[in-house]
Amino acid sequence: MAKSPNFLPIIDLSSTDRVSTANSIRQACIDYGFFYLINHGMEEEFLERVFEESKKFFALPVEEKMKVARKEHRGYTPLYDEKLDSLGRSRGDFKEGFYIGPMQGLSQSSLNQWPSEGNSCMPSWKTTMESYYEKVLYVGRRLASLIALALNLEERFFDKVGALHAPMAFLRLLHYPGELSALEEEVYGASAHSDYGMITLLATDGVRGLQACFAASTICREKDKRPHIWEDVYHINGALIVNIGDMMERWTNCLFRSTLHRVMPTGQERYSLAFFMDPNHDCVVQCLESCCSEASPPKFPPVRSGDYLEERIKAAYSSQES
Ligand SMILES: O=C(O)CCC(=O)C(=O)O
Ligand SMILES: [Fe+2]
């Protein structure tokens, strides 16, 4: 299996040898909970265009951005609004974001908010974001079928349990400002957290900052173990960084890891595009038969995806109105 400079595996989505790809994904998810995805079908030029459009939004005056402030978990989240490590001491994460939610069906898609179309510098903003959402969702679906194979399940397993029928998939544009705050002791771009859902597909802009906690916890139940040892997750041109979320960890009874990660401020402005592919609201996430036995009983009770997500989002925004 190909390895990147920081030893994370590289998975080639275009490989025709699905069995070998699924085996590589299995090993990556057991060992790291993180891997790179290459040849996913989205051109580098297209990714660059999405980053350019994202930058245009964050460059707007804050009053303009607040016109689409987060409602129903869609829209703009200002600096310090979210705190991913809800128990941490900081006042909030030093980043701003913009959430775009599911677009299938009128009832879902009409909840999305868009920056004013009248803004002449952003004529193709909405169509670019819609196009990115569609493309990255397609990549996520292809990956989900390989993950099913990696778990010795049939390829369409996640469709069959209803996870991928109208998935709760959120695209989040992120902007980490470059300046460092000298006044506050503990400031993170994104404080330590694991993602909540199934899988996250992340596009980065080449500015460092993302770190993951690989060494300290060999299995997920040791997330609380200290000290945490953080490793940089480097950017690879054109590659997506994929990581496993907590619901996948629950499905697999901790066979696959949802690894803690964070974004450190480096003094350099940074942008990223995080796509959280989470199961349909009504999908019940429960230990897969292939992942439990008498010796290894289920570690978590079954949970409805929508209830679990709501709980986690509430904790991250607990100092704010939701
Ligand atoms: O911006 C990044 O590189 C990571 C963001 C992240 O981990 C998150 O929003 O969950
Ligand atoms: Fe994350």
TrEMBL record:
PANTHER family found in the cross-reference section: 2-OXOGLUTARATE (2OG) AND FE(II)-DEPENDENT OXYGENASE SUPERFAMILY PROTEIN, OXIDOREDUCTASE, 2OG-FE II OXYGENASE FAMILY PROTEIN
Lineage per the UniProt record: Eukaryota, Viridiplantae, Streptophyta, Embryophyta, Tracheophyta
Designated name of the protein: Fe2OG dioxygenase domain-containing protein
GO molecular function, a single term: metal ion binding
Similarity comment: family membership: Belongs to the iron/ascorbate-dependent oxidoreductase family.
Fe2OG dioxygenase domain ranges (all copies): 165-279
Gene3D superfamilies, A to Z: B-lactam Antibiotic, Isopenicillin N Synthase, Chain
InterPro entries: DIOX_N, IPNS-like_FE2OG_OXY, IPNS-like_sf, Oxoglu/Fe-dep_dioxygenase_dom
Swiss-Prot/TrEMBL keywords: Iron, Metal-binding, Oxidoreductase
Keyword Metal-binding assigned: yes
Superkingdom of this protein's organism: Eukaryota
Signal sequence, start to end: none
